[in-house]
Amino acid sequence: MILCVSPNLCYDRLLIVPGFGVGGVHRATRATPLAGGKGLNVARAAAALGESPVVIGFIAGAAGDAIARGARRGGLILDAVRVPGESRWCTIIVDPGRTETVINERGVAAERQALRALRRRVRRHLSRARVVVLTGYANIATAVAAVKTGAVDYLAKPTDADAIQAALLATCRPLPPPPEQPMTADRVRWEHIQRVYEQCDHNVSETARRLRMHRRTLQRILAKYAPKA
User: Fold this and answer.
1) Is 164 a residue whose pLDDT tops 80?
2) Which domains does the chain have, with CATH numbers?
């Protein structure tokens, strides 16, 4: 069994909108709802390959109900912890052949009691799990902590199928060979800044203070698009 621990589940809406642009009125030619989040996406792929994955995460409100129904319709086992609030809705707008726009809402806040319930569910399934997939927004510090507690490797997003296959099949050395195109230093820096900015509730002044940067320098970085990975 593959155990997917994905606290920040969501409900996706994929909209196909030809000629999409900011500031106009558009009509979607197709709308596809889907229970999402990295853990459910991994589980869906694993199930298609004949595995029997179990997904653990938080759900809340009407969106949480939709996530649970979507998982059941997809034949996936979801052992969710229900928490107060509302699970996030994520909207993906695709203009075929041109652009893809993703709007991710903020996830639910989990209190200590909910975190303890999540851990109990993980322990309940661990004895049957061949593989445990932990998904989330991490950083170098959390990766080091994971390795110290027994993880054999970690992958940074974005990655590709070849890197995932190499990590899963590596047996002759502690880590697989480095990818042909690893994340650039500029992209790593940008990801770290975005992480701290998110942790500071989008407070520019507080983020600049914690990163020991000038506020105007940070504002210029935040105003730019992400560097190429």
Assistant:
1) no
2) 2-136 (3.40.1190.20), 185-222 (1.10.10.60)
